[in-house]
Amino acid sequence: MKHSALMRALVSSGALTLSLGGAAHAAPCRPANPCAPRPASSRMNNPCAAKNPCAAKNPCAAAMADRVDTGLVLRPKHYRPYRGDIAALTAYGEKLFRDTSLSSNGMSCHTCHQGNGAFQNTFAQPYPHQVQMAHDRSAVKTVHLDEMVQFCMVVPMAAKPLAWDSKELAALTAYTASLQKGFRASGNPCAAKPH
Ligand code: HEC
Questions:
Q1: Choices 1.10.760.10, 3.40.50.300, 3.30.470.20, 3.30.70.360: CATH for 66-187
Q2: What is the pTM of this model?
Q3: Residue nearest ligand 1's atom 2 by CA
Q4: Which helix (H) or strand (E) holds 153?
Q5: Distance, CA 151 to ligand 1 centroid (Å)?
């Protein structure tokens, strides 16, 4: 068989297209930001998509996404959180929750979490517990609530983590703890089943 005939045979048998197809598919699996809100049109079909823009619709997204350095999101050694009046911290946290200046992409925590949106059933469990995002992005088995705030600062908010001893971190942690009290896993039709 001549070289060109061999090529034709390979192409028609699918052997070549298969390997080319593999390369061509690699690119769409690497979104710049897997948490970026999808266009309104793609949300229409699935009412849960708008609630949780990070849901694992695309199995490539989690696998291909950049790994998050655990040094940014896990409590440091000799960790000393800011302590203050819980009611005052919760009230301040509620304000920060809607503050888009905390992120680098125009989002606030409220953008995704209003009406308990984007929270999965794991949110109903006491901390520390496993959270899919932390597991996928840093292979972390369990997280504390303040670590989860830091994960969301770094991943969906595309910002730097807050200082571990800051009033801001304590406030967002106090406010999300108050949201957790009112969260019922079964009340969220978009939540995944518990692991
Ligand atoms: C772009 C959307 C988005 C933004 C913005 C966002 N989050 Fe999240 N957050 C998520 C998603 C999605 C999850 C669920 C991760 C999972 O279960 O895998 C999550 C999980 C959490 C959890 C853990 C829930 C659990 O199961 O224990 C907390 C707490 C949280 N976010 C707080 C915040 C705070 C505080 C902010 C603002 C600093 C914020 N989030 C900003 C999408 C977002």
A1: 1.10.760.10
A2: 0.72
A3: 112
A4: helix 145-154
A5: 8
